Each structure stands twice: as C-alpha cells, then as structure tokens.
Amino acid sequence: MSPAICGIEYLDADVWSCILQHLLALRHEYNRDSTKHLACTSRRIRALCMPSLFSTCYGHASQSGRVPPDEIRLYVSGYQWRGSEDTYDGMLDCDRPPLGAEFEYFPEVHAVVFDSVPGGVPWNHPGLTSLTFEQDATWMCVPPPPGCCLTTFSYTPSIWRGLDYLSAIVPRLSNTAESLALPEMAATDWPRLRTFSLTGQYGKSIEYSSIPSRLAHMPNIRSLSVQVAPPRGCPRPCIADSTFAGGSRIELLTISYPNPADPIFSSLTERLTSLSLCDSPRFYFYNRYDMEEDTNLVAPILGASECLTILKRVSAPRLVRLELVYCTDDAEDDLLRYLVLAFPILQELELHRYRPSRRDEVPYLHLAEMLTALPYLRGIYLNLEWYDPANPTPWRLPWYASRNHIEEEKLVARGREILRILETGRCFEFAALH
CA 289 to CA 297: how far, in whole Å? Predict the structure, then answer.
C-alpha cells in the first residue's frame, strides 16, 4: 500500500482558502509579496493562488486603453483606478477610451475604487455592488445608473464637493446598502445597513442635533463610526438618545470627542468587541507639525476621569480592542486599573496620552508596568507626547519633515525599555510608539 501523500500541495481547497485569506490580511501589515512568493513554489500552488493574486487589478490614467492578459480576467473582482491632476481632461479626451471601457475585459468585477481624481469622476457604470471614492476623488454623476444595486458605498472626499450628487443617489440605496461611509446622513430607513461611517465637520454637512434621529433608522447596525470634527463653540454631541434600541447589536464603535453622558454607552452589551474614544482629525498631527491652523476647529479631548466615566457605563466583557485619547489628570491610574477589571480579554490597546503642560514628564515605565496586568494583551500602540528636558517646548516642524536621528534614537531606546517590561506578558507580541 503506497503511503498517503501529505505535502502542502495536496491540502483541501477549503484549507487553502483559509491560508490565502490569512496571507492577504497579513500582507498589508507585514509582507505585501507573501502570496506571490508562495505561488512561485510549484505549478499547482500557483494555480491555487491565482484567484488571490489577481483578485484586484490596478489601473492608471496614463495606462488607459491597455488590454489585460486573458489568463487573469476571470479572477479580477476588484478594480482600483488611480488618476492624476489632469485626469478629468483625459477622461474627456476623444482619443482615449471612455472611463469604464476596461470592464468589458473583467466580467466578474463587482467592486471599484477611485483615487486621486481631483477633477471629478464622470462615472455611470451599472452592475457594481461596491463603489469607493477616496479622499482625492469626487463624483460628477447624477442620477445613479439604471440597475444600480450597491451594497457598499464609500464617499469621503477631503474637499467638500459633490454633496449634491450624494443627495441624489444615497436615498436610492436604502433597500440595498449594507455598508456606507459618508460625509452626511440621509433621512431615510436603512433596514439592511450593517456598517456606517460618518466623517466630516459639524455645521458644514452635518447637524449634530440630527444624528440621534437618523441613527434610529438603522435598526441592524453592527459597526458604527462617527468621526466628526466639532467647530468652536459646539458642545460635545450625543449621537444617540434614550430611546435608541440598536446598541445591543453594535460590535464595533468609534466616536470622536464623545460626550460622557451619551446614552449610547449604556446601551452597549457583550456583543461589543472594539471601542474607540478618539479624536478626529488627529490632534497630534496639528500639535507637532506647523500646519495652517483652522481657527474654527477645536479639540475637546477627554480627561482621564471622563474616559473612566464612560467606560464604567459600558458593559463589554468580550472587548478585545480599545482606543483611548485623553489628557492626563489625577484619575489616570484608576483608568488603567479599571481596564483590567472591565475588559479581562483585552488584546490590543491604543493610547494617545496628552499632558496639561509640556513640562510634565512622561512616566512611560510606570504606564508599562500598569499595563502588564492585562493578561491577554497582545499589542499596544502608544502616543505619549514625549518630554525632552533639553527642549521642553520643541519647535513645530513643517508638515513634510520627519524626526531627526536624535529623536529617533531616543524613541527607540524608550521603546526597548517599554518592551522589556511588557514582554513578560505571556501573550505579548508587539509595541508601536509614536
């Protein structure tokens, strides 16, 4: 009887699917070419890797009109199109094929991403289920094409244009949308919506008083992100009211500059696995770099005591990821001790810690010692606004500058000290310092 063949090439297809999904998730963080290297080991493995290797195709304005190889066409399910400063003029150039002509070669494409198209995208292509416009891309098409049945739609431009176009298409997605990322909220019912992300600034496209009533129309929401910058004089808003009943279904929640009295925190249950009490836009970016200041924007960062107040209202024993942005006060140690009691299986922690005064030293070793009490902590991200006695009020850098080598050496040395303390944990794997 011949011995059973048990080489890696002969694993079941479902096992290969799990391996490749894991590699695809890792490549964004560690090695972008891991799947490619695996595919080079044998012909059979290459055949198994083909759907993953060519699941997404990338196009550029300068390459429009090129014909893709026959061998990959049926594998492409996603297409990312990147333009340039003169993209819009090129789109209207009669000598170039129209935008969307590439898709006659990709019959299985259902998801498209547009990036770096500042002049706007004259898009009118039906048959997609996912459409994404990155920060440097805007839309120029109304109404939506016939047969439009998007389940995923993301529109988060860095410039506030195209909102009129959104008002024409977004309400029409109410019966199909499962995931939305928008700079405004539409007053309609969303029976299938599972993921919603709201970005922008209160007073421009978003009235903070309207959020609770709009949220009430999302009965099946699972992932909710409200990252909106408050203008000067605007109080921290509540995103839910006392009648909100959807909190028991939420699994991921992100809120910038949250109000400690927000009823949404009391409605959360053990389904919650990820919580972020953050700032948006990131305060450290404007604090460190010499940006042109927007005098209308403020950063009402929570105090440590306010963070503690919120967390005491949250019942989430299955929480595995937590982000906190706070200004230190007398309750900081109580806050960190409470994490151990309230979230016993916490695995990833992100802390952005700011000081009332730049002259206050950062007790980073003490903080690391306290965090060793988290038994399942796997990774930590720390922004501790480091103190330098030789330069207690550091100059602000131009936005394009990076840390000098002296700053980098100090950061590495502190990181090693923190690691020596945290690596005593049985599950600890990594730390990232900013």
Answer: 16
